[in-house]
Design a protein that fits this description.
The protein has 130 residues and is mostly helical. It has one domain. The chain is 65% helix and 0% strand. It has 4 helices and no strands. α3 packs antiparallel against α4. The two termini are 27 Å apart. The C terminus is likely disordered.
Length: 130
């Protein structure tokens, strides 16, 4: 999915992430549930997964996303007067990225196996002869 559709989905996910993170005022529902942390994890995970699917090398994008997690909180604290940085948000961000990285890796490994479960990464063909 590294074609136009993959890049488009990545662009949408990235735009949503940047809007949520850097909007001048945080929007938080008045419930006792940790929605804020869940949203942070989901957004960072979605941006990681769609970035890899759009063709960005996984290890480069993993590093960028993991660095962006604490940096976004520092930016919110230093440059957005209506916002504050929260180290727990950075933890939620990193957790979302790591969960998405595992999910992308597992999905990639499954895509590279034949029906017998043998990895076809090196040969590009299954273990069965046809």
């Amino acid at each position: 999915m590294s074609g136009t559709g993959g890049r488009g989905l990545f662009g949408v996910a990235l735009a949503v992430q940047l809007a949520v993170l850097y909007w001048p005022r945080a929007v938080q529902p008045a419930t006792g549930l940790p929605w804020d942390k869940l949203v942070h994890a989901l957004i960072f995970g979605a941006v990681y997964a769609t970035g890899v699917r759009a063709g960005i090398r996984w290890w480069v994008w993993l590093a960028v996303c993991l660095v962006h997690a604490p940096v976004s909180e520092l930016v919110q604290d230093a440059l957005l007067p209506q916002r504050s940085g929260d180290p727990y948000d950075a933890v939620a961000d990193a957790t979302g990225v790591l969960v998405a990285a595992v999910a992308v890796a597992v999905a990639g490994a499954r895509a590279q196996t034949d029906g017998s479960g043998v990895r076809t990464l090196l040969t590009g063909r299954g273990a069965r002869s046809e």
